[in-house]
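=== RUN LOG ===
request id: a7f3
mode: sequence -> structure
chains: 1
length: 272
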Amino acid sequence: MAMSRWRPGLVAALAIAIASFAEPAPAPAQSMLDMVDLSTDQFTKSEMSRADIEAALAKLPAGETLDLFGKALNKLDLSGMDLRRVNFQAARLMGANLSKANLEGVNLDSAWALNSDWTEANLKGASLFGTQLVGAKLDGADLSGAHVAGDMSKASMKGVKLDGANLSADEKNQSMGLMRGTFKSTNLEGASFKGANLRRALIEYSTLTGADFTGASLAGSELGGSDFTGANVEGADFADADVNSARIGAMKNADKAKNLDKARNLERAFRN
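=== RESULT ===
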């Protein structure tokens, strides 16, 4: 689906999203919350209604995309809608409800969606590059095959599906900071990461009990303080992963994991 803009356009998208920077100096994407005034109209109001979007989609010619680039859509109830033909790049979706919505293949790069609800949403193959989902709810959402290089800290992602997803660090956009899947104090209980690319991902102090990492790459990832109790790590690659203070003693199929002995700070992990 030809929904995404050319990758350099992300710099412009971020410039829009952080228009209220206190200082113009560049900073990593995951620290942008400290530099944005979330009380402004851009992050609290909506310039469209659900009815407006439904009407625009109904009139949309076949094969075309509804471009909502940079639109303020805060607190809208878009639950259950078919939004596969919408471009949400750099959109403001703060507190919005997209539960059970169909967003397969949708572009959500640089979108701001703190405290939003994506429960059981279909996000297969979607692009979430630089997306801000701090405090969001994604329980049961399907992000299989998605590109997830955004911030999902403090989010509830119980039973989320990230099979085959790419959450690895993006080394090509250093001017925007190190973009990668970021999970700090995130609830990922029962999440599925089968075959996912988590190279250099940040997963600190998160709950991963009962998660499935079968065949996933965790090489170089930062896993400090996270709880892997009951997580299936068969075939998962831990080469150079930092497991400082992580609970790894009750993982399933640990004997079938790859390079667990080559993880960093293994002596500081909880193994009992």
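=== NOTES ===
Confidence is low (pLDDT under 50) at residues 1-8, 16-30.
The longest strand covers residues 127-132.
=== END ===
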